[in-house]
Structures are given as C-alpha cells and as structure tokens.
Amino acid sequence: MICIDFQIILIMGVTTDNNEKLRAAGFRIIRPDDTPAPRIKEWISNGVWVTMKVYTTKAARDRGLKEILMDPKIVTG
After folding, report:
1. What is the dihedral of CA 48, 51, 57, 60, to 10 degrees?
2. 29-59, pLDDT tens digit by residue?
3. Are the beta carbons of 20 and 73 closer than 8 angstroms?
C-alpha cells in the first residue's frame, strides 16, 4: 500500500515525481487547457498530457471539469 502525504506534496509543489506517486496510488491528474480548443487533458507519465475531451466553449469545458472532479480519485495538477 502506498501512503501519500498530500500536505507535503502541496508544500513541495506538483512535480513529475509527485505526479508519479499520485498515479501509483490510483489517482488521475487532469487540467483544463484552451489551446488549440477548450479541452481537458490528463497526465499520463513523464510530463506527457493527452486530451481527454474537447469542448466547443470554455463554459462547457468548465462544467465538464466540475463534473469529472466529483470523482474522488481525480485531481487537478
């Protein structure tokens, strides 16, 4: 079992190593992006982000992000 101290990660900042620890613990890391279109990206590994979903507007993306973040195993980073 992997134990993660989220307070330490918040103090240290989100780094590739910390993202790896979160992924190993079963978390998914996502973030909103506007280029080339409003979308939500997911961190896969070693700084690689892939598009989860593309939206027609920023407002739609923000609503989608809010819904996705209802899952306790999904965090923004």
Report:
1. -110
2. 999 999 899 999 999 888 789 999 999 999 9
3. no
Within 8 A by CB and 6+ apart from 39, the residues are 32, 33, 51, 52, 53, 54, 55, 61
- Return the closest-CA partner of residue 34 out of 48, 50, 54: 54
Is residue 30 within 8 A of residue 68, CB to CB? The reply is yes
Q: Which residues contact 74 (CB under 8 A, 6 or more apart)?
A: 27, 28, 29, 30, 68
Residue 18 is encoded by which pair of tokens?
């910390």
User: Which tokens go with 61?
Assistant: 């993306």
Which H or E run contains 58? Answer: helix 58-68
Instruction: Pick 55 or 21 by higher pLDDT.
Output: 55
| pLDDT exceeds 80 at position 10 | no
Look at 51 and 12; give whichever has higher pLDDT: 51
